[in-house]
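Why do we bother with a discrete structure alphabet at all? Because it lets us treat a fold like text: something you can write down, compare, and reason about line by line. To make this less abstract, here is a complete entry for DNA-binding protein. Read it the way you would read a sentence in a foreign language you are learning: slowly, and without expecting to understand everything at once.
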Amino acid sequence: MGIFGKPKLATLLGRPLRCLVCGGREFWSREVKLNSTGAEFLGLSWANQSAVGLICDACGYVHEFAGPRPELWKPERGYPGGAE
């Protein structure tokens, strides 16, 4: 998916994250805008809030997080503290 870097493992609130669709463990991270109709209509889409989007490397499903942010880890190092 990306030309910069590699997909990462992710944890949320100290727990490993797996894709809801395929169970994949590696994700690409992107900022995702949370568009609202009013801001779009007024040409203020730049002012919309954003979330973190984790895109599954296996199936492409996008998981969005607007609250607590997931933490990302290099797959070769595994999860921190053995959080399998």
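What the structure line is telling us, in plain words: The chain has one domain: 9-82. The chain has a mean pLDDT of 83.
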